[in-house]
Specification:
Mean pLDDT: 95
Number of helices: 2
Helix content: 10-25%
Number of strands: 0
Largest sheet: none
Structural class: mainly alpha
Distance between the termini: 12 Å
Strand content: under 5%
Shape: globular
């Protein structure tokens, strides 16, 4: 499992969004998709639902100043943990 990647969008997160054990969410906000770790990504189904809504709304960055200049959505989404695809 990719423990440092957002379950919704695949963004690398320095501090593991679900803690060292993978079961304790930080409740931080993903700067890319805006998911709150432990709330909207709590289950496989809720994660997929949040992702679908985020994609439908145009994949807008939650924190626009954090968006890399050469951001590539397709490459980033390859980092979504397999279980949450």
């Amino acid at each position: 499992m990719r423990e440092n990647n957002c379950r919704v969008c695949g963004l690398f997160i320095q501090d593991k969004p679900w803690g060292e054990n993978g079961k304790t969410p930080t409740y931080e906000i993903c700067p890319c998709c805006g998911v709150e770790f432990g709330v909207e990504d709590y289950t496989k189904e809720s994660t997929k639902e949040y992702r679908e809504k985020w994609i439908e709304s145009g994949c807008q960055w939650f924190d626009k100043k954090e968006k890399p200049e050469n951001w590539n959505l397709s490459l980033q989404m390859e980092n979504i943990p397999d279980y949450y695809l």
